[in-house]
Amino acid sequence: MNKSIEDAEKFKKIDDHRISLEEFSKRYGTDLKNGLTEAVASQRLIEEGENKLTEKEGMNPFVEYLHHMANFFAFLMWAGAILCFVAYGLASDDPSNLYLGIVITVIVNVSTFIEFMQNRKSKALMESFKNFIPPEITVIREGI
Asked: Three-state SS for 36?
């Protein structure tokens, strides 16, 4: 099975927000008053990693736009536009193929632009989630 599918299945089963504090404490092996020991906290840090969001590297907007333009549907539309231009070149007395080629080219560019802008807005929304994460937290370790 695909790793992303496995991760999604694992997250679907998370019910930590629905269980009682006592059950939560048992499940994760912690004490509500004393917290974790330094040894357990260090071991969990090694096993599970830091508790932070992972960031993707930013992509040049022009390259990102070209990436959106390079999908199967866009390739089909580009092929259709090229065929229209070739047909116009072979029989230049009828401009309908030229017009059709131009319309298809405009449609591909407009749909690519809309997809690009929606993706940028989604990324901006995800970036705004970082503001909800406190930069520092207070934890209890060995009762302190």
From this structure: strand
